[in-house]
Predict the structure.
Amino acid sequence: MIRIPFGRPSKGAQTGKVSVVFSDYCRDELERWHDRGEDFDEERFKAAVDLAVNRLRAMEEKEDKT
């Protein structure tokens, strides 16, 4: 029997960067939305993801400095 892993490990999982893990998740979620063929506001989704990722990066940078 062939076993297919449920999810692929992201590069963020290896580095411990929450922003990378979240960004990977959102990219996959966007792909799922496209596969479903449902209408959604892609530009708004991308803007929200960008805002969240920028805030996460700022928090990570602040933690790195302490």
Summary: Residues 42-65 form the longest helix (24 residues). The CA atoms of residues 12 and 21 lie 5 Å apart. DSSP finds three helices and no strands in the chain.
